[in-house]
From TrEMBL:
This is Uncharacterized protein.
Length: 61
């Protein structure tokens, strides 16, 4: 009878190379520190410039 290893420490080493590569990519990604989401905002003048229609009003002259 042939003995089969079930979950032994060396069993993952017998996996095909692409599977091992994927394992290390996933493991590295999980251990990598998480980056905080970037936050940004507009100040009032820059935001209003987005809606400027190019017309000059009389009170601005």
């Amino acid at each position: 009878m042939e003995k089969k290893s079930h979950g032994g420490s060396g069993s993952w080493r017998q996996a095909p190379a692409p599977v091992r590569q994927l394992f290390w990519i996933v493991r590295r990604a999980m251990l990598r520190p998480k980056r905080r989401a970037l936050s940004f905002g507009y100040d009032h003048k820059r935001y209003s410039r987005n809606f400027d229609d190019g017309l000059v009003t009389a009170h601005c002259l």
